[in-house]
Each structure stands twice: as structure tokens, then as C-alpha cells.
Amino acid sequence: LQHKVEHQQALNVVGQMACSIAHEIRNPLTSLKGFTELLKLNADEESSMYLSVIDSELQRMEQILSELLVLSKPTSMKVELLELDNIVKQVIEFMLPDALMKNIMIQYISASTQVYIGGNENRLKQVFMNLIKNAMESMKSGGTITVEINVIDCASVELMIKDEGVGMDSATLQNLFQPFYTTKSTGTGLGLAFVKKVIEEHEGVIGVNSELQKGTCFHLQFPIYTFNQMDTMDVSAKDSAYLV
Ligand code: ADP
Ligand code: MG
Predict the structure, then answer these.
(1) Residue to mutate (ligand 1; options 128, 131, 132, 134; most atoms within 8 A of CB)
(2) Which end is more exposed in the chain, N or C (fewer Cβ atoms within 10 Å of the end residue's Cβ)?
(3) How many CA atoms lie within 13 A of 151 on its CB side?
(4) What pTM value is reported for the model?
């Protein structure tokens, strides 16, 4: 027991450190972004090219920081009524150009009815993005990613993200949700830890099936929100929502 308590305390210290470092790095990062924007105004063609690389690398740093922050402490989030279909579509549209460049098709099968869930739009988008990004990274020679929404019953909805990639061995399957666990040379291992934490914050569950050389399928399940629950939430979109 003593050993366990010490382990927990060590984790908390690491968490607090990660959290304050992330905060400290955020401010200089914001000023770098601002000055990059200013430089763009007078940049010639060659400089513009370099600046867009700087831009996307800064964005990547920002994303790692925000994942670290969410993972390292309990955070509050703004919860709204969200139409799942709409959020998923926006994420797919955002990722499509990158996918097409890698010879990857994203097939989307939407739900038969509109479904609303309660959640934080930005965090959920980041979750879907992380899962689709992993799927893309598992398919080095292209293929199809299938994203499908299924209404299970009046209380829950399922989202599936299926790829035709390399699949996972049993060691990876056991550790994939651990922070910093990665099998990639340039991975952070934060993506799925973030996914799991955010899904649990949304009272959802996540499961995975995977077969080596065949592919992987992540299943997410969320509670469907109805009128009664909406009344207790701070939402302005009540008019456009309806009972499933
Ligand atoms: P990262 O992508 O930075 O490695 P993640 O937390 O997103 O970190 O994923 C952890 C590990 O889980 C990956 O390194 C990879 O081994 C495995 N993994 C996740 N998604 C998939 C997938 N769709 N197909 C195969 N392996 C996957
Ligand atoms: Mg990842």
C-alpha cells in the first residue's frame, strides 16, 4: 500500500509540473504566433513557405500543450447540446485534404435520425481528430477509413472509426491508453490518453478491436440527451433540438 501511495504522489508531482510548464510555454508561444502573423505581411514567396511551416509547427506545439493540460489536472469545460452528426462531418471535412494526399478515402455513414449529445465541442472535435489521425497513420499505403454513427436505442448512440491499417499487437492493445505510450518514432503517446479522459468526462465509453495487418476499429458510445436533460443545461439551441 505504501508503495502505491508513493507512486500516486509521484504521479501528482509530475502532473503538477507538466501543468505549470505547459502554462509557462503557452505565453511565449502566443507571442511567437503573433509575430509570425506580422512577418507574413511583408514576406516574399520563399519566406512565406518557411513561415507556413513555422505556423503548423507552432500549432502542433499548442495542441500537445492543450492535451497535456487536460491530462494533468481536472479541468472544467463548457458543455453544450451538440448534434453529433454535424460535429463529425466538420472534423472529416477538415481532415479530408490531408487524407486524399495520402491516398486515403474517408467514408462516412451518418445516423438515420438527428442525435444530440451533451458535451464540449472543441474537446470532442479533438477526440475525433486524434482517432482519425491515428487511423491515417496506420495506413501507410492508403485505403479506406469508415466513420459510422448508429443510434443504439433511445438512450445511447455509437460512433465507429474503422481503418484498414497495420493493426495492433497485444502489448499495444494493453497500453494504448497510457499517457506517453507510443510505437511511433515521432509520436507523443498523448492522443489516446486524451481521448479516453475526454470521453469519460462525457459519460461515454470507448472500446477497440484490432487485428494485425487487417485493421483497427474504435467504438465510442455516448448518452443521448433529451429535452429534460437540456433544461438543466445552459443551452440556447433548445428550439432546434428534438426528442429522439
Ligand atoms: P501516438 O499517435 O502519438 O503514438 P496515441 O496515444 O495516439 O499516440 O496512440 C498510442 C499508440 O496506439 C500508437 O503509437 C499506436 O501504436 C497505437 N494505435 C493507436 N491507434 C491506432 C490505429 N488506428 N491503428 C494501429 N495502431 C494504433
Ligand atoms: Mg496519435
Answers:
(1) 134
(2) N
(3) 17
(4) 0.84
